[in-house]
């Protein structure tokens, strides 16, 4: 008889939940689709995560921790870090989509892992130039790095297909240049 691997099951469920909720949000996401995609069952999802909201919170936390791991802030090179965040969102659009769904559907919830952001704030605090606070600076860098992925497609389409590699390279360069100009003292 095969033994169950609870951690592997949770990981499959979370991966399926990130994909489902990124595509459809909390309200549109279906636990039965998540269970099927994870080769699990609804009962296991409720056992591990309590309810659909708990699963959404866990999926969001997982996605944001992955972003933090893949693109950790570099206090000595915030311009390069902005490029890293841009690259991450290009490779993993589900993370940004999931974050946006959380802001739309649960603006008062504390589903996002605050300790991840607190760690980033403390990391850049010593190198934050005036007049910015560390939070101001992180919000601005994130906004610039995410801009191409959340802007109206009618606007961004004026420069061609979104997957044109030359266009992507140019947009990444503008992200880095914009953060560099903001940081000039």
Write a concise synopsis of the structure shown.
This protein has 185 residues and is mainly alpha-helical. It contains 10 helices and no strands. The radius of gyration is 18 Å and the shape is globular.
Describe this structure in words.
- The chain has 185 residues and is mainly alpha-helical.
- Helix content is 73%, strand content 0%.
- It has ten helices and no strands.
- The longest helix is centred in the N-terminal third of the chain and has 23 residues, at 6-28.
- The chain is globular and about 55 Å long.
- The relative contact order is 0.11.
Please report the total strand number as a whole number.
Answer: 0
Radius of gyration: 18 Å
Shape: globular
Arithmetic mean of pLDDT: 89
H/E element order:
HHHHHHHHHH
Secondary structure class reads mainly alpha
Percent of residues in β-strands: under 5%
Spans of at least 5 consecutive residues with low confidence: none
Q: State the major sheet.
A: none
Distance between the termini: 66 Å
Number of helices: 10
Percent of residues in helices: over 70%
Features:
single chain, 185 residues, mainly alpha, 10 helices, globular
Chain-wise SSE layout:
Elements: H1 6-28, H2 31-37, H3 42-49, H4 52-70, H5 78-91, H6 93-105, H7 114-124, H8 134-150, H9 153-156, H10 165-183
């Amino acid at each position: 008889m095969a033994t169950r691997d609870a951690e592997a099951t949770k990981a499959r469920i979370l991966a399926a939940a990130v994909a489902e909720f990124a595509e459809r949000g909390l309200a549109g996401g279906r636990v039965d689709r998540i269970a099927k995609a994870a080769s699990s069952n609804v009962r296991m999802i409720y056992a591990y995560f309590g309810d659909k909201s708990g699963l959404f919170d866990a999926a969001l936390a997982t996605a944001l921790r992955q972003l933090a791991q893949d693109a950790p802030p570099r206090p000595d090179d915030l311009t390069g870090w902005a490029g890293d965040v841009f690259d991450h969102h290009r490779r993993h659009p589900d993370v940004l989509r999931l974050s946006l769904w959380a802001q739309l559907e649960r603006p008062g919830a504390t589903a996002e892992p605050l300790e991840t952001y607190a760690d980033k704030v403390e990391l850049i605090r010593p190198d934050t130039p005036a007049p910015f606070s560390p939070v101001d600076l992180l919000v601005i860098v994130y906004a610039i790095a995410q801009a191409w992925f959340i802007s109206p497609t009618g606007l961004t389409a004026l420069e061609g297909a979104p997957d044109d590699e030359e266009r992507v390279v140019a947009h990444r360069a503008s992200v880095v240049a914009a953060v560099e100009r903001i940081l000039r003292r």
